[in-house]
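Chain entry —
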Amino acid sequence: MGKIFSDDGKELLRILENLINGFEINGEFPSVKRSIKQFDFDDVYTDILDYHEHIIDRRDEYDNYIFKNVLSGNEIIDRYKAEDSLRYKWNKNLESGRRLFEVCNDPWAIRIITNITEDDLKGEIDNIICLANELKYKIDVVNFYENPKLDGYRGVHLYFKNNKKCYPIEVQFWTRRDWFLQRYTHEVIYKQSYEKSAIDYSNNLRDWVDNIPLSPLGLDSFIDYYYEVINSINYD
């Protein structure tokens, strides 16, 4: 059975909780359960920059954990939400009346890309969720394997929310196949078009990726090869 963490992620929950301890969203804001229409974008992003600074100042233990506990074949990367990315998401959701905690649910995100099987990945995620339940650690789960997006997107997102006064930490899990498609759909379809033809095209790509033949024993797979090629290119 494939694994991501040498300790099954047991220390990760504690480290993430330590990371967000002590941070509080701007106390002058209305409730985070209110629509983003009641907030000023610039004020919110200024607060998110403070949150980024909070993470940066306290991330040594997290970095050491990732360096020592992530097994070969897995990659853990993180990103801080850029202003233009949040503004795009903000404007996209402004008229729908979505609430601040829904729109600002990923100011700092951890992305886990693995070459273990989809079934093994689901088992690893279940272990983390069970551990969180034992520790009474609040996690929201969004499972796009059980309910894929209309464009065929798959993956699992966990939102670590033990500190109600802090922004959530988002952790995204993808197999390399899911990542392979996600890179394209996010950059080209999500950010540029929602026309039906684009959604149909994305689903056709999903079918194509799902049916890529398995490579013979000892030969690098098509997905692994292009994962390494694409991942060698720096991007935002």
User: Anything to note?
Assistant: Strands lie at 74-80, 108-114, 139-143, 156-160, 169-175. The chain has a mean pLDDT of 88. The longest strand covers residues 74-80. Residues 41-57 form the longest helix (17 residues).
